[in-house]
Design goal:
- It is built from 7 helices and 7 strands.
- By secondary structure, it is of the alpha+beta class.
- It has one domain.
- The strands form 2 sheets. Strands 5-2-4-3-7 form a 5-stranded antiparallel β-sheet.
Amino acid sequence: MHSAAERRLAVEHWLLSTLPDPHGREVARRQWREMGAAMLPLGGLFSAVRIPARLVHAVARTTEPADTDGFLEDALDGGAVISVLHGGPRYYALVPGSMPRTWHTAADEWRASGVDCLGRDALLGVPPVTRVEHDAGTWASYWSVPMACAGELCAPLTVARLIAAGVHQLAKQEGEEQE
């Protein structure tokens, strides 16, 4: 059995292993300390699906951060999710590194809703593993659903279902408003 601190350290090491050399890992640690997020490359160990907050809020039926975070944890079976609060709130569901290549058709359909699959040649601002609570006044991002152990990612099919439900719910809401 491992303590929470040991698990966080293992997650941090796993995330940093996306960087090719020790110097890059030290730069990322400094970014966590000084800027609150480290820029990590996607497409190797993990990729990310960017989901606008309005889609998540529509299906979660709440905009309260704690409630939304709990909803995402349940809906994505504990898979890791980062919440970004500035520049239009959005969520990044972390998925296996190879996932975006397999999602081209769905991603094309969802782009109109603001969803995007980020993989090779993309970077993601990843908050420190200890930042697990919403604090809009202090942080630009946090772990909406923390990575419980190294490599615990969202299942692509589960993310697809969440997106489809959000798109459907938004369309339904827009239809009701037009009546």
